């Protein structure tokens, strides 16, 4: 029996205006959940409800809110296998990775549970006597958070956990195709004791969400928009937020480069490229886009990379595989479009291309009813190619070569994204020169482009985002606003800059 799920606003189930069916991408005949989709009015109503609930929540002492975060972490930990199994069932993420994803929620809770006892402001001296200066972090109010389904629980937790800890209320709109995973996580969060209305979940399609967001921003019930998704939609969300004098927290796509220097340990680089490019079937925003390999090791690298890929298991995500199916039909269709970008000057070195079927099997695997695709390595990619310049969410990696490190950095920055990057080298000078030159928010040395840890800043530049950062202490600036306070207890009006004591120096003094 499949699940029936609907939006929950203020602790109550909200009316649905339509239905979405979330399918198992590994067996598309299996329904994971029937999802009631809300309209724009329900989204806006959820934001009003959140605004009401936020006032009381902000009055709960931050250390007590920290205890709620601690409970969320415990609940997620106690339900880790169930939640991971659901993620695997709903989006086809290999179970080991799904467990890792659930772990990332716990890590995020572990980090922020103590932040309730910090949320440090500063006490600083004034220019004048008998006056004190302070800074406070205030919650922003209501955060509207719209998330993708490739990380249906970990990435939402990067928004939800700090937003709630800081005393905000949240309206969360998860991806429809990952609705059951999102709803399960929502239940774990509310079981930790969040008062009704502090966290609301609204299932809606993109158009209704955008319209609802526009309404809510107009009504003044949303104070921060968080969005994880494509650069294209991110632009629209950023524009909308900007019209309301807000800066959205945008986590967008990537065309993440991996540079391989002639001094790299090639087998290590192959292992890194394999996981970066084809783990999660290439559907992380941090997945590898293009390998930029030094011309002297190009042929050797490509040969080993193709060999490693051919030996890798693609199949049922419940098993021990490198990759399962694509997330959902929408992603499979888009991926097929990316495959049309292949041109005569490209050389596919990995074997078959396209959907894995009886007529186009991968060894003994025919894909059954799943949205499985052959993983593809394309050699000979050139800087003017769409395959080089644009994100290709899915299991396809381009390869190009370079002569000097400066040229490699230039190639790495050329597509104009800036989320993640990687360099394989045994020379520290190369690593630091790369770090300095690369536009990405994240740099790996001798490691995969993916796999960011929960306590480092996560976010991109250029087409990957507007410079906002999630995770770690940096995200606090997304969910709080600084307030400065001065308190004069001198009993008279002391004017800043004017009533300030001056100590005369003898600036003509010189040593004999
Ligand atoms: C994403 O795909 O939106 O660094 C985030 C990583 C993961 C997060 C990916 N921890 O690959």
Automatic annotation (TrEMBL):
UniProtKB keywords: NAD, Oxidoreductase
Gene3D superfamilies, per the entry: Aldehyde Dehydrogenase, Chain A, domain 1, Aldehyde Dehydrogenase, Chain A, domain 2
Cross-referenced Pfam families: Aldedh
Active site, per annotation: 251
Annotated Aldehyde dehydrogenase domain residues: 18-484
Source organism, top-level taxon: Bacteria
Enzyme Commission (EC) number: 1.2.1.3
InterPro entries: Ald_DH/histidinol_DH, Ald_DH_C, Ald_DH_CS_GLU, Ald_DH_N, Aldehyde_DH_dom, ALDH7A1-like
Subunit relationships: Homotetramer.
Name of the protein described by the UniProt record: aldehyde dehydrogenase (NAD(+))
């Amino acid at each position: 029996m499949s699940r029936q799920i609907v939006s929950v606003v203020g602790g109550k189930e909200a009316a649905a205006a339509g239905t979405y069916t979330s399918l198992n991408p590994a067996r598309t005949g299996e329904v994971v959940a029937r999802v009631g989709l809300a309209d724009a009015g329900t989204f806006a109503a959820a934001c009003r409800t959140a605004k009401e609930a936020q006032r009381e929540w902000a009055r709960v002492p931050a250390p007590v809110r920290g205890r709620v975060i601690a409970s969320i972490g415990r609940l997620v930990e106690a339900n880790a296998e169930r939640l991971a199994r659901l993620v695997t069932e709903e989006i086809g993420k290999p179970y080991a990775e799904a467990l890792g994803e659930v772990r990332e929620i716990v890590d995020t809770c572990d980090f922020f549970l103590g932040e309730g006892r910090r949320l440090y402001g500063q006490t600083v001296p004034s220019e004048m006597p008998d006056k004190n200066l302070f800074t406070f972090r205030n919650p922003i109010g209501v955060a509207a958070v719209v998330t993708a389904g490739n990380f249906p629980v970990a990435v939402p937790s990067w928004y939800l956990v700090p937003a709630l800890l800081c005393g905000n209320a949240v309206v969360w709109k998860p991806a429809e195709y990952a609705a059951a995973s999102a709803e399960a996580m929502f239940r774990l969060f509310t079981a930790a004791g969040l008062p009704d209305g502090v966290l609301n979940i609204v299932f809606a399609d993109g158009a209704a969400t955008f319209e609802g967001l526009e309404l809510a921003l107009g009504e003044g019930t949303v104070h921060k928009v968080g969005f994880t998704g494509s650069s294209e939609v991110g632009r629209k969300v950023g524009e909308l937020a900007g019209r309301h004098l807000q800066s959205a927290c945008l986590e967008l796509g990537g065309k993440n480069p991996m540079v391989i220097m002639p001094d790299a340990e090639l087998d290590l680089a192959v292992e890194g490229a394999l996981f970066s490019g084809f783990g999660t079937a290439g559907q992380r925003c941090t997945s590898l886009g293009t390998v930029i390999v030094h011309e002297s090791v190009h042929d050797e690298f490509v040969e080993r990379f193709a060999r490693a890929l051919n030996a890798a298991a693609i199949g049922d995500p419940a098993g021990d595989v490198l990759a399962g199916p694509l997330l959902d039909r929408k992603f499979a269709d888009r991926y097929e479009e990316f495959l049309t970008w292949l041109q005569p000057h490209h050389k596919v070195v990995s074997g078959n291309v396209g959907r894995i079927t009886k007529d186009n099997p991968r060894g003994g695997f025919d894909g059954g009813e799943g949205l499985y695709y052959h993983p593809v390595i394309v050699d000979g990619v050139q800087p003017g190619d769409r395959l080089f310049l644009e994100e290709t969410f899915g299991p396809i990696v381009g390869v190009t070569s370079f002569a000097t490190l400066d040229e490699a950095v230039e190639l790495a920055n050329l597509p104009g994204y800036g989320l993640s990057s990687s360099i394989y080298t045994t020379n520290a000078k190369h690593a630091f020169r790369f770090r300095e030159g690369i536009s990405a928010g994240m740099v790996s040395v001798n490691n995969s482009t993916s796999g960011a840890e929960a306590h480092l800043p996560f976010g991109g530049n250029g087409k990957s985002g507007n410079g906002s950062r999630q995770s770690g202490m940096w995200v606090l600036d997304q969910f709080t606003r600084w307030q400065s306070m001065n308190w004069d207890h001198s009993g008279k009006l002391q004017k800043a800059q004017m009533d300030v004591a001056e100590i005369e120096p003898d600036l003509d003094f010189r040593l004999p």
